[in-house]
Amino acid sequence: MNVTKSVLLALVAGSLLFTAGCSFDLNNPNADEYDVQIIGDSIYDYSGDIQDILHDLSGKMYKDRSVSGEKIDGILTQYDRAIGNTPSLKTVLADGGGNDILQGSADCESDPLTQGCIDTVDYVADRMEVLLEDMYQDGVDDCIWLGYYYLKDSEAEKNEALDHAYTIYPSVFGDASLNLYGAGGAYLVDPRPNIVPSQIKSDDIHPTYSGSDVLANLIWNVMVAEDTYR
User: Which interval of the chain is the signal sequence (predicted)?
Assistant: First the structure.
C-alpha cells in the first residue's frame, strides 16, 4: 500500500461509479457514530459493504450520507449537510468525481484524452480543493479520500482519464490546509495496485464484497496509522 500523509487516499474509487445518472440513496442505515461520516457515491452507497466492514473493524456504525450517482457538486452538498447537523464532526471518509466522468458529456475514452475530459478532471480537482478547505475552516480533523481503482472490460477505456487524475489530485491533498495547518491531515488512498478485475462486479464498475473488503481495510489502515478519530 502506498500511503503518505499528503497523498494517501485517493480519488477515486468510490465514485467511479455509478449507475447512469441515478441519484438515490440505497444504504443509509441508522448510525451510532456521527463524528465519523461517509460522503460520496455508489462505491460506498451501492452495496453498503464498505460501511458494514468498517463497522466490524471499528465496532461503530459511521453515519453514511453517500448517494449513488452523485457528482462532485452533490458530494459537497452532502458535506454541508453533515457539518450542519454535526458541528463536532472529526473524520470524513469520502470519494467522488467518477460520475462527473461517467455521466458527463465529455469524451473520456479517446486516446489521447480530449480537452473536454481534461477540463472535467480539472473541475473535480478544483471542487475537491474547495471541499478540503471547507473541512479545515469547519474544524474537521481528518479527511480520508478513497481514490478510484481501474475499471474493467466495457469501462476500461476510462482508465486513461483515471491515470491523468492521479497526476493532479495528490497535489490537492498535499497542499490542503488540513495537512499544512491542521491538527490532522488530508489523505488520498490509491487502490489501483490493490483491486483486481475479479473484485469488480459484472457491471465493470462497482466492487464485489471482496473488493469492498480491500477498500475498507485500506481506509481503516490509514485511520489507524494516522490515529484519526475512529
Answer: 1-20
**Positive or negative CA dihedral for 82, 145, 165, 152?**
negative
**CA separation for the pair 199, 184 (Å, rounded):** 32
In the chain, the number of structural domains is: 1
- Inter-axis angle of helices 115-138 and 159-166, to 10 degrees? 50
Cis preceding linkage at 29, omega within 30? no
CATH of the domain at 212: 3.40.50.1110
Is 10 domain-assigned? no
Do residues 107 and 114 lie in contact, with contact meaning Cβ atoms separated by under 8 Å? yes
Q: What are phi and psi of 114, to 5 degrees?
A: -75, 160
Enter the pTM of the model.
0.88
pLDDT at 104: 84
